[in-house]
């Protein structure tokens, strides 16, 4: 987990991978589909691809848990969850933490990063 936390994934890549995940057929929108997309985005940097996979998976867990109301729309009939781009970008930077059976983001830290990114992009 230390390697993943040290590896920041560029905002543009996090957003692009997330958009491509939404475009996948529902049955391909799983961990393997995500890993394939990340590997395609970072063919020369497997550590960056792995970090992207774990960060997006943690973001999905955090959003699905309902701990980020207002930053993501409810689950769509096709299984997608439309998420604010600043939140996806922040997921590329904020450290992951273990909770229960998997990795998630510390909510206050993630939200702080979202606000910092929004100020940076204005």
Could you list some keywords that capture this structure?
globular, 122 residues, two-stranded antiparallel sheet, single chain, 7% strand, mainly alpha, 6 helices
> How many beta-strand runs?
2
Give the % helix.
55-70%
Q: Which spans of ≥5 residues are poorly predicted at pLDDT below 50?
A: none
In the residues, how many domains can be counted? Answer: 1
Distance between the termini: 32 Å
**Strand numbers in spatial order across the main sheet:** 1-2
Summing up helix and strand content along with how strands pair, one would put the structural category as mainly alpha
CA-atom Rg in angstroms = 13 Å
What's the oligomerization state? Answer: single chain
H/E element sequence: HHHHHEEH
- The DSSP helix count reads 6
Biggest sheet statistics: 2 strands, antiparallel
Mean pLDDT: 87
How big a fraction of the residues is strand? 5-15%
Shape: globular
